[in-house]
Design a protein that fits this description.
The complex is a heterodimer of chains A (386) and B (429). By secondary structure, chain A is mostly helical. Chain A is 60% helix and 3% strand. Classes of the chains: A mainly alpha (386), B mainly alpha (429).
């Protein structure tokens, strides 16, 4: 972001502030000097001297201090500083969006729900101490529910960081059926990595023993992979110079950690990304559009508070697209169960209601596709499922 | 193995790499319709999005600056006060006629040590000023550092900042400082600013107004500018407490001194509170009963938080709530509430659905189709293919399936088996 003008405006503040403080210091020192001089003059007067002497000196001191005009000097230095101090926030207001709560609906967010979401977020990010601290401070003991499953996940991942696959294998074995149902081959991937580790560290015999017990169940379903791994046995001790050296890449560990995370979250009914991160990121992308909308909706605040659907599209990045949304190019309506998308015989897709209108509700009379010269019949249109 | 192109949602870098090769077709609506164009959009549009999102960071720069400004002002006030005290001290001594010699010496010495004290204060003050200026700078640098290279790390820091803001506003100070410390973002969050608020809030929760009144006195001119009646509300509460303890004489004296000045602008409230003298704290009359309830103190604490936020240029709502609301609205579609909603959608979770329930649905002007199998967008590059039963999948997914199964396609949702050649292309505009 181009922040140079803002930075310049800011830099003027500490600059003027330093000028002003050194001026203040100067003034204070000057006053101090005058007083000290007067003091030493008074002290040097003989005690026996008359009273008028020291009051004379005091009178002179008073006049001198008046001459310095310290207060107006202080005020003068402050003036320039004040200009800089008021300019910078004005510039901020101009460059940035000064009130991002303008598009906020006055609905009460249930605090417990929000707290629960935050606690789960801390736990799923592996910040267990922080999560506990928060649950404690917010007095939300139920929010700790998410902790135990995520702590199991982090035990598995921590062990994997230390090149220990035991907890991961144990978890995969426990969830064998479900993983299979999801069409996941993560179990094979874990065993493969373990096999290569054993081959590297303990040699051929141990590796062969491991393969017999754990890899054979995959032999038929993953023939090519199985053969490749068996081929590795020939290169025991020099796998790094074999055609299979790629199996040693540390990248496999990183990739597998991510995959374990993905499947683990899936099995406990959670998303891979923290839902809080996703929602906030979507909010950051969507908010500028909403704020612009509020600018044109001034005076319609009430409408905004009760609106059932946003009046404008909020363009989010691809990663936030979780559902297929079909918008009829003719009516601009979003497809729904009552108004499903239909495939015309020419390959173009319209919503059912648009087709009904185009065909003038006559199912036998052909009509022209709005997007190509084809004549199509209602009877030949097929409903689509995205 | 590594040739597999993962259908991960974070495939952004891949997409932008692809866009460099393809000549950027930017033909208005077409570019928006073709969903691929969103990911293949020129990096400038990504940068534009980034710039738009940075514009939301007003509070991030404003708050430390207000804090800095406050320090500058109060330091200056100290100088002014001390200097004028010393000068009038000299004046008094000079004008007095019966000052003895020793008195004069002592008087001047005390003025000198007063000035020396001021010099020390000035030194400490400029240290604080320097630190606060550094903080303002650190924020500017942090904003400037956001670019496409470090964006995911930057975004994760932003979430942490938003969470610290939430913790501070909810008075979860331990979590706030722990989170800031663990992530080393102390300069990017306003813990110090809020520690000033903490004192006042704690006191109000203990039914104690003195720190709140001191805060009002400290910020008198600015509160007056924003026409705040917070001080009046504090005074009313103090008055109520006097009535509660049946200290009516003192209550009247208090009202004369502290409530009467507000009469011109807030007569109605003043009259209502004065009427409590006629009732007692155990009154059943609803108009007055409510004034004696202890939730008035909670209300004062809430009121204070609002005044405090306004003074520092913060939003009145926690940032977390603002972004959550915008995000939930942008993500909310009727499909989120279906049973087969993907787990990756935050709105598949009960807690998020609950928060989203009073919010509007998002709107789309153009179709955005996601392949059921690969979760990738179906666009001109990866067009949708229709099975004989009407189910639609992306070309990529179908071709892969056909390659693996000798041209046979199995519909994952219905189990229908058909040939690759039975499929037709759908044109989505």
């Amino acid at each position: 972001m181009e922040l140079n003008t803002i930075k310049e405006a800011f830099d003027r503040v500490p600059k003027k502030q330093k000028l002003s403080s050194s001026k203040s210091q100067e003034i204070v020192e000057q006053i101090e000097l005058e007083i000290e001089q007067a003091l030493s003059r008074i002290q040097s007067i003989d005690d026996t001297a008359s009273q008028t002497d020291h009051s004379l000196i005091l009178g002179e001191l008073k006049a001198k201090l008046k001459e310095i005009t310290p207060l107006s000097q202080l005020e003068a230095t402050q003036k320039e500083l004040n200009v800089a101090l008021s300019k910078y926030p004005k510039l901020l207001e101009k460059t940035f969006n000064p009130d991002i709560s303008k598009a906020y609906r006055n609905v009460d967010f249930d605090i417990h729900t929000v707290n629960q979401i935050i606690a789960s977020h801390f736990y799923r990010e592996g910040q267990f101490d922080l999560g506990d601290c928060f649950v404690n401070e917010a007095a939300e003991p139920e929010a700790q529910a998410a902790k135990s499953s995520f702590s199991e996940m982090y035990q598995i991942l921590e062990a994997m960081k230390l090149r220990n696959l035991e907890p991961a294998l144990k978890w995969a074995a426990c969830n064998h059926e479900q993983l299979k149902q999801n069409g996941s081959d993560i179990e094979l991937k874990l065993h493969r990595l373990q096999f290569v580790e054993i081959l590297q560290r303990k040699g051929r015999d141990e590796a062969l023993k491991y393969a017999r017990t754990f890899l054979t169940p995959f032999a038929t379903s993953h023939m090519a992979e199985f053969q490749k791994l068996m081929g590795c046995l020939l290169w025991a001790g020099k796998l790094d110079s074999s055609p299979y050296s790629e199996l040693l890449s540390p990248m496999h560990w990183d990739k597998l950690s991510e995959e374990v995370t993905r499947h683990f979250c899936n099995l406990i009914g959670q998303s891979f990304e923290s839902p809080l991160s996703v929602t906030i990121a979507a909010g950051v992308q969507g908010l500028p559009t909403l704020l612009k909308l509020m600018n044109v909706m001034t005076g319609k605040k009430q409408e905004w508070q009760t609106m059932k659907q946003l009046p404008v599209p909020v363009d989010l990045d691809r990663e936030f697209q979780f559902h297929s949304i079909f918008v009829c190019p003719v009516s601009r309506d979003q497809a729904s169960e009552e108004n499903p998308p239909m495939l015309l015989s020419c390959g173009h897709v319209l919503c059912k209601q648009s087709i009904t209108k185009l065909s003038k509700n006559n199912s036998t009379r052909p009509f022209k596709c709005p997007y190509c010269p084809s004549e199509v019949e209602v009877g030949q249109c097929r409903q689509l499922f995205f | 193995m590594e040739m597999e192109t993962d259908a991960l949602p974070n495939g952004n870098s891949q997409a932008s790499a692809g866009s460099a090769a393809s000549t950027g077709t930017n033909e208005g609506a077409l570019a928006i319709v073709a969903v691929g164009a969103v990911s293949a959009a020129p990096p400038s549009s990504q940068m534009n999005k980034l710039a738009e999102s940075l514009k939301l960071e007003h509070q991030f720069l404003r708050v430390p600056f207000e804090h800095y400004k406050k320090t500058i002002r109060s330091n200056h006030r100290i100088v002014e006060k001390e200097v004028s005290a010393v000068i009038s001290g000299v004046g008094e001594a000079a004008d007095s006629t019966d000052l003895s010699h020793d008195d004069a010496v002592q008087h001047l010495s005390s003025l000198v040590s007063r000035l020396q004290g001021l010099k020390r204060k000035l030194e400490d003050g400029s240290k604080t000023e320097h630190l606060q200026a550094q903080r303002c700078k650190a924020r500017l640098d942090h904003l400037e550092s956001a670019d496409s290279e470090n964006i995911s790390e930057w975004n994760s820091t932003r979430l942490k900042r938003i969470l610290v803001d939430y913790m501070l506003r909810m008075s979860f100070y331990d979590t706030a400082s722990k989170l800031a410390q663990d992530s080393n973002i102390q300069d990017l969050v306003d813990i110090e600013v809020f520690s000033e608020a903490k004192k006042v809030i704690d006191a109000l929760q203990n039914k104690e107004v003195t720190p709140a009144l001191a805060w009002c006195a400290d910020n008198k001119s600015r509160l007056k500018k924003s026409k705040s009646k917070f001080e009046f509300q504090l005074r009313l509460q103090e008055f109520i407490e006097l009535v509660r303890s049946e200290n009516n004489v003192r209550a009247i004296a208090y009202a004369r001194k502290y409530l009467a000045p507000w009469g011109a602008t807030h007569m109605k409230e003043l009259q209502r509170v004065m009427a409590t003298l006629a009732f007692k704290s155990n009154t059943e009359c609803p108009t007055y009963k409510v004034l004696f309830e202890s939730k008035q103190w909670e209300y004062l604490a809430e009121q204070f938080k609002q005044e405090f936020c306004r003074l520092y240029g913060m939003t009145l709502e926690p940032l977390l709530n603002i972004y959550l609301q915008a995000g939930l609205s942008a993500l909310k579609t009727p499909f989120c509430y279906e049973d087969d909603c993907t787990k990756e959608d935050p709105l598949s979770q009960e807690s998020f659905r609950k928060l989203a329930s009073p919010l509007p649905f998002s709107k789309q002007h153009h179709s955005k189709l996601v392949c059921y199998i690969t979760k990738e967008l179906m666009d001109t590059e990866n067009p949708p293919l229709v099975l004989p039963n009407g189910y639609v999948y992306s070309t990529k997914a179908i071709e892969e399936m056909a390659k693996k199964n000798n041209g046979k396609i199995t519909c994952p949702r219905t189990g229908l088996v058909c040939n690759y050649t039975d499929l037709v292309k759908a044109y989505i505009s």
